[in-house]
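Quick one, tokens below. Sequence please?
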């Protein structure tokens, strides 16, 4: 339990607004420092072999103007790549996406004192359907990014989970606890942004129910 709390507390979360080609967008921002040098973190987030070890398998032409595809997840175009500090991609999920479905993910890295640590700041800007926003709020994507940054932390510490082990973690008591507390952390970010507490509570409850569905007992139990 303490490890889960510490991992979530290591991330600073923020909400904002931005203008992207798809239109006026809502942003979620996550900021976390890692005990690794900037070159190591940059390689971990840009090398296909290493991305697979902490996130998910990725294919494509990984250069500016090229396209990438995460297995069973989002894909898009690489808009900007400035090693080892700045990466920006479009992020498109689902079949037959329209122009408003093209969101943007920007990652910036900066060195800590002496170069022994690296701070990663990730911003996801998306034009959000008002009905979905009202139902889930920023936790809809925020919980997923919290899980990603947790995987990166484990990888940079020398640990590794197979895709099957990552899937098993999501369904485990520890994984469910992490997602629940992450959803609550995004609720705190909404409160900090001045949102109505009742609206926040509803969104947190819906987001938690999405990521942590009730456990059903096998037939006959």
């Amino acid at each position: 339990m303490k490890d889960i709390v510490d991992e979530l507390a290591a991330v600073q979360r923020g909400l904002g607004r931005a203008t992207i080609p798809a239109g006026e967008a809502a942003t979620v921002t996550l900021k976390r420092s890692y005990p690794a040098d900037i070159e190591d973190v940059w390689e971990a987030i840009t090398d296909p072999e290493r991305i697979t070890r902490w996130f998910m398998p990725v294919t494509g032409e990984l250069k500016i103007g090229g396209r990438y595809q995460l297995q069973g997840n989002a894909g898009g175009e690489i808009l900007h790549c400035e090693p080892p500090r700045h990466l920006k991609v479009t992020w498109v999920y689902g079949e037959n996406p329209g122009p408003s479905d093209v969101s943007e993910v920007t990652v910036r890295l900066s060195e800590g004192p002496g170069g022994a640590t690296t701070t990663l700041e990730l911003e996801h800007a998306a034009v959000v359907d008002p009905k979905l926003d009202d139902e889930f709020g920023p936790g809809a994507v925020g919980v997923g990014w919290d899980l990603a940054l947790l995987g990166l932390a484990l990888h940079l510490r020398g640990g590794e989970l197979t895709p099957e082990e990552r899937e098993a973690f999501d369904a485990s008591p520890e994984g469910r606890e992490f997602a629940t507390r992450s959803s609550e952390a995004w609720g705190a970010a909404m409160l900090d942004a001045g949102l109505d507490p009742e609206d926040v509570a509803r969104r947190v409850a819906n987001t938690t129910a999405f990521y942590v569905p009730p456990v059903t007992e096998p037939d006959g139990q």
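The chain has eight helices and eight strands. The first strand starts at residue 12 and ends at 20.
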